[in-house]
Every structure is written in structure tokens, then in C-alpha cells.
Design brief:
about 190 residues, alpha/beta, five-stranded mixed β-sheet, about 30% helix, globular
Length: about 190
């Protein structure tokens, strides 16, 4: 699709989660610009493969992906139509919120939170870290536990990262609506 659009005069870009591998034939093709997360990517200080080179960006992945998308929009040729794919990492597990996340009230920094997240029931009621347990990751089996999906949507981490992603998508949408990006070609 991006190749066809590009052949027809569109400027093309993809920013964010690619999850189709990287390097050689796995890199995005048909895009004038691409900056992708290798694999699932990280929520904090994520690495990107940008036009074939590895870079690390400081900050929260959701914010960074939006900023990279807006930056591309601002730098593109305004005389041509465009096609931008903005793929956020959120809401993929593990759900690690930004600095305003649900554990901020415990005084736990986001760099500490990532370590804590990987232990089931590690956070005690007083905010201390109890005896860590090794996590058990498995796919949902909704036949076994139909409540599981409801539990996901009620998880405060999940709710927080989705709220942040929604805010960033609205921010990007407002930028696209801005008259600077409206293509008035023939």
C-alpha cells in the first residue's frame, strides 16, 4: 500500500510499533521516512530503528511517537498529499505508565516501576516491596476465565496508558486538522 501511494505522488511515513522484524527485508519498504520500535519496544527511553540506524530517545514512547509523527508532518512537502501510519506501543503488555502513572503516589519512579512490574504482587499495601515472585505469563483463555478480559479493562495501569495514548492521538489529530497540513492539490 505505501508503495502504491508513493507511486501516485503521496509522501509516506511510518512511526512506532512495527513488530515485523528489522534489518534487511524486514525493514519497512515504500516509506519516505520510517522510525520503528524493534520488537515490542520499551515504554521508557525506547530504542528505534530509524531509516536503518539505531537510536535511543529519552522519554515515554507514546509521547515520542506522537512528536516524531508531528515532526514528519511539519517537515514534509506541503504541496503533496501524505500518508502517515502512527503506531503506538500502548496498550501492549507489560503496561508501564508514564511518570504520572498509578504508582506515582507510592513515590516509585518509572525506572523502578519497570523492575517492580515484573513481579506478581510485589507491591505491599504500605508501598514497600515484599518478597518478589516470578511472574507467570500466559495468553488469555477466555473459555476458562471469561472474567479475564473484564479484569484487563479494569486494570489501573491499562486504563492509564490508554488515557495517555488517547490524549496523544487527539494531539496528532489536531495537528492534522491544522490548515498547515491540508493538501489543496489537484
Amino acid at each position: 500500500m505505501p508503495k502504491l501511494l508513493r507511486e501516485n505522488g503521496y509522501q509516506t511515513a511510518i512511526v512506532g510499533k512495527w513488530h515485523l522484524g528489522h534489518g534487511g527485508e524486514s525493514d519497512p519498504t515504500g516509506f519516505d521516512y520510517w522510525s520503528i520500535l524493534p520488537g515490542q519496544g520499551d515504554y521508557h527511553d525506547p530504542s528505534f530503528v530509524e531509516m536503518g540506524r539505531s537510536i535511543t530517545e529519552k522519554g515515554y514512547a507514546t509521547d515520542i511517537i506522537t512528536v516524531k509523527s508531528i515532526d514528519w508532518l511539519e517537515k514534509r512537502d506541503k504541496e503533496q498529499p501524505f500518508f502517515l501510519m502512527c503506531h503506538h506501543k500502548a496498550p501492549h503488555r507489560p503496561w508501564i505508565p508514564d511518570e504520572n502513572g498509578v504508582y506515582a503516589h507510592y513515590g516509585i519512579r518509572t525506572d523502578q516501576y519497570k523492575l517492580i512490574y515484573y513481579y506478581a504482587d510485589a507491591l505491599g499495601t504500605n508501598g514497600s516491596v515484599d518478597e518478589p515472585k516470578v511472574p507467570e505469563w500466559e495468553l488469555f483463555d477466555l473459555k476458562k476465565d471469561p472474567q479475564e478480559m473484564i479484569n484487563v479493562y479494569n486494570d489501573p495501569d491499562y486504563e492509564h496508558i490508554v488515557e495517555v495514548m488517547e490524549k496523544e492521538l487527539h494531539r496528532l489529530q489536531e495537528e492534522v486538522r491544522d490548515e498547515r497540513f491540508i493538501y489543496e492539490g489537484k
